[in-house]
Write a structure and sequence with these properties.
There is one protein chain. The protein is of the alpha+beta class and 239 residues long. It folds into two domains: 180 residues, no CATH class; 43 residues. The chain is 16% helix and 46% strand. It has two helices and 15 strands. A hairpin with a 5-residue loop joins strand 10 and strand 11. The two termini are 28 Å apart.
Length: 239
């Protein structure tokens, strides 16, 4: 079974993020305005104004969802044929202010999937992707994401796995799962340092010609079984 790994360089920026206007304050103002007008206007006018402001509110929420960033720092396009059709797909990891995103494009450079990773602290970044196969129809991409470091204690940091399944014959069907921790380290106020590192394997455990993802740490194991539709079933066992 062929496994391909891609490592990402450090992506950062010295610019300070600037935050957009909070549209929720505007929505609250509209609510008070509609209430005031409803006391003075007739029923027909009231319905008209409610529809008018509701439409404006909906458009404002849509604008808020399509967030404008003060800066975006992307990696170059990483190209690789992941579904075996002889054409390369593309991957771009980006720092959008303090957010971490992965964007996936098909062989025509059309966007087909995007996802924001959960950032916990400073210096977060995606540092590795691992491509593998579940069966002849489904592939999986394992993302290795460093969630960042916090200073609530003396030091606390972690790295987490994300699993993205896709259909090889239809490179538009994706399912992302936020997986387990891969690496954890913690140093308390008294100087006690703790570290936990897990191992990742992709192999066929039950001889059904389909691979599972196995996460191991000492006597504890997690098995991620991928269903035919790309969703997951998780089994945990302590030996």
């Amino acid at each position: 079974m062929e496994i391909v790994e891609v490592y990402f360089p450090l992506v950062s920026s010295k610019k300070k993020p600037s935050y957009n206007f909070d549209m929720r304050l505007f929505a609250v103002s509209l609510t008070f305005l509609v209430t005031f007008l409803s006391l003075e206007l007739k029923a027909q006018d009231e319905r008209y104004f409610r529809e008018l402001f509701l439409k404006q509110y909906t458009e404002d929420i849509k604008v808020e969802e399509e967030k404008k960033y003060s800066y975006v720092v992307p990696t170059p396009f990483y190209t690789l044929d992941v579904n075996g059709d002889g054409k390369n797909e593309s991957f771009v990891y980006s720092k959008k202010e303090a957010e971490d995103w992965i964007d996936i494009f098909d062989d025509e450079k059309k966007p087909v999937f995007k996802y924001q990773f959960t950032t916990v602290g400073a210096k977060s970044r995606l540092y590795k992707m691992r491509f593998s196969h579940i069966d002849q129809d489904i592939g999986v991409i394992v993302f290795y994401f460093y969630e960042g470091v916090t200073k609530y204690n003396e030091m606390d940091s972690s790295s987490r796995l994300y699993f993205l399944t896709f259909h090889k014959k239809d490179f538009s069907q994706f399912k992302m799962l936020q997986g387990p921790y891969l690496f954890e380290e913690f140093k308390g106020m008294k100087g006690h340092y703790h570290q936990r590192v897990r191992q990742v394997e992709v192999m066929d455990l039950n001889n059904d010609q389909r691979n599972e993802i196995i996460i191991k740490h000492h006597l504890y194991s997690e098995v991620y079984h991928v269903n035919k539709d790309g969703s997951f079933m998780v089994f945990r066992k302590k030996i």
